[in-house]
Fold this sequence. Notes:
The chain is α/β, with parallel strands linked by helices and 234 residues long. Helix content is 27%, strand content 20%. α2 packs across α3. The longest helix is centred in the C-terminal third of the chain and has 10 residues, at 181-190. The termini are far apart. Mean pLDDT is 92; it is low at 1-7.
Amino acid sequence: MRPFALPRLRGLCDYPAYKLTHIDYELYWRARAPWPYPPRVYVIASLLERGSSVFDVGCGDGELFDYAASRVPGLDWQGLDISAVAVERAQAKGMRADVTDVTAPGFALAGTYDYIVISEVLEHISDPERLLDTVRAHYRKGLILTVPNICYYKHRIRALMGRFPVQWQWHPAEHIRFWSLADFRQLLSSRGLLGGRMITTNGFPFERRVTPRWHRLWPNLLAEGAVFVVPPQV
């Protein structure tokens, strides 16, 4: 007799093939081909005013800067990333960027900016709480954060099928921290980052599309990711 097994859903319950042999962000950025702007880029750019100063923590190849600078005049943008390959690509787009490891014990910010952006970074590091504590006194208008949602409906279906959610593109070790949108709100509150708002960016039914915005009806289930905007803390 064959053992009982739940029916497989093709493309959902199988793990994708690894594209890297091990997690290394120089290899990651060499392997990663350019792709269309993700929906979060449009949302973040819409939050910025003309002439704003922006510090982009984990700027990657500068895709956010590339789009925002084409839409918002006079942005003073500076960024950093752990990958020299990514920083070189960001610099080629005209962005001021440096190679820095934000998880290093001595990491600190020297200046104050209108906005600090930490987009799709916190889930990659083991101690995001320390990074949030580090940047909290260094912005005047807003701390802009984005994270994926581990309680997105596709991940819930995988869990029902006995499989862990897949939130990676190149190697399973990309993400080492996981939150639902409700959990992330609680994390911000626990660090004293209060009074923020959440804007879901994409999700059900078309993940790479800005519209329709049905995911905003039930964010913790239907949104794949969100932008959190935290005001300055008194």
